[in-house]
Amino acid sequence: MNYSNNELITEMKEAFSFFDQDGDGQLTIKEFETAAKSMTQCPHYIMDRVKAENKMTIDFSDFLRLIKEKTSKEDNSDKFLEACEVLDIDRKGVIAINDFVSLLKKFEENIKDEEIAELINENNKAEINYVEYKDFIKNIQNWCYDSQCDG
Q: In terms of domains, do 84 and 144 share one?
């Protein structure tokens, strides 16, 4: 979402009002789940956040925070690709594994070293010291989506 802050808030208010079926200024968990399904790629992840916070209803400030948090994570994949391309000096579609791991840890803060090793072992058959980052990114997005959306 490339919006100014005011445009984003206006759009989120419209969405909140749309999903607030009874107009009480609060979304029930069911209403919020419907909103999350239509507004994010991974509604299970965002619903887990709501459950962890023990919320029974969601007001607009919570709605805005949760949706912005999730959509900003989804938008990070483009920034991650751009960061890989900067490190790809020769424009061959590869970067050093160490650089790739550093970027991955920066962009996926909760990823564990064991998970990184598993991803590299599963997806990096061709090169020992380099990563073909575009294909790897697709696999990582699928892995992150699957790991956040299981349940």
A: yes
